[in-house]
Amino acid sequence: MVGLGPKKAPSRKGSMADLPHDLMQEIKRLEDLFVVDTNKLKAISDHFVSELEKGLTKEGGDIPMNPTWCMGFPTGYETGTFLALDMGGTNLRVCEINLPEEKGEFDIIQSKYRMPEELKTGNADELWGYIADCLQQFIEYHHEGEKLDKLPLGFTFSYPATQEYIDHGVLQRWTKGFDIDGVEGKDVVPPFEKALEERGVPIKLTALINDTTGTMIASAYTDSEMRMGCIFGTGCNAAYMETCGNIPKLAHMGLNPDDQMAINCEWGAFDNEHKILPRTQYDVIIDKESPRPGQQTFEKMIAGLYLGELFRLVLVDLHEQPQVKFFEGADISPLKKPYSLDASFLSDIENDPYENLQETHDIFVNQMGIKPTRPELELLRRLAEVIGTRAARLSACGVAAICKKKNLKTAHVGADGSVFNKYPHFKARGAQALKEILDWETGRDGKPLGKGHDPVEILPAEDGSGVGAALIAALTLKRVQEGHHAGIRDPQGMLKGTAAAKPASNQV
Prior knowledge:
The chain is of the alpha/beta class.
């Protein structure tokens, strides 16, 4: 196999002509299972629209459609100095963002702090105390010797939370490895603010946000065509701006029906009733053996956490079928461990530039101790392609559904997450699916499709958990200053001694 050189294969169809009959049959079966045609994409998108609408009703549905109390897009002319805190599973990130008077500009300084593993299963006081300590360190380092008024803070708390107010949030359940007693079902803001107060940290929490909403707002700050924010990573989610008159579950709040509010869809739960998504037997196994069977159906078919596991389940199944000669005589025990492969495994296979799939061969030898034959390599490559392609095409159904619901003919969508940023061809496959669902014949202004002319484009997002969180704090403070207090629990506390509430000349 050595010495065949890095000749790139544009398509593998020709390479499959000499495959043994049993493997060709299996490739055909896998294509039938995983390929989602145009008609199915359209049917999924139409059902998605009705499920988005159902989630906004008082009765609700599978998709939570959480109101965020982030009201409206930024203008690009927001000013002031704001802090942003992003509490992830591995790190804690603290940012200070200055919004100058130039449209769409910002300056950012930031620090990362490790989130100690023992905190994730410790007690709540230790967690909030540690976070407050990090914020205190950040301020002391960057503002040594300065006397500060309270800086407004946007807190990206990317765990499922119910919000009746933008400055509070009730944790529904821990994710990302956290399991701290006494926090689920309670408002996380009071204990956090208590920890800040005990240390005398000059900060006022102004907005608790989800990273998807932050992604949309940060992207809209620099791009006036931005209409949605999406995360395609370990999990999946989206946010978009809804007219308050179209949110029946908030009818009792007496909001102006023409006002806009960001909705955090939490759309990973789409089709938990299993009415429309083309689930395979492998998807059923993933769901059945997950910690929460019957939940997050959409996410389990498209998110990075599950792509490697889908791939692994198919390989084990092929090996165990007596009529198929696959990894014959090999010890596949490394493949028997659930979640031993992640999405990067498929990504590496799809990125293999060699005609003879040498890199894929080496990955299996080095990581699994399995030496695939040339026909087996062809099947591995095709399987990675159909799983990766299905994820991208199904992802586009959610974007298309919001476009249909809001009657958007053109839009930009800000997207973030490891799958969107790193998985090969994900963007192009998603764009192709959007074209099929939304029946585009030509691009914007009659120009050819592609090359920046698609009517709806999914683009790399701005920093949602940093810049987005700060901007939402700015928008919230502006609302309070203008006397609009809907969805804000402590408007007076926000104005009292808050640095960014003062004229720009007094900014930090």
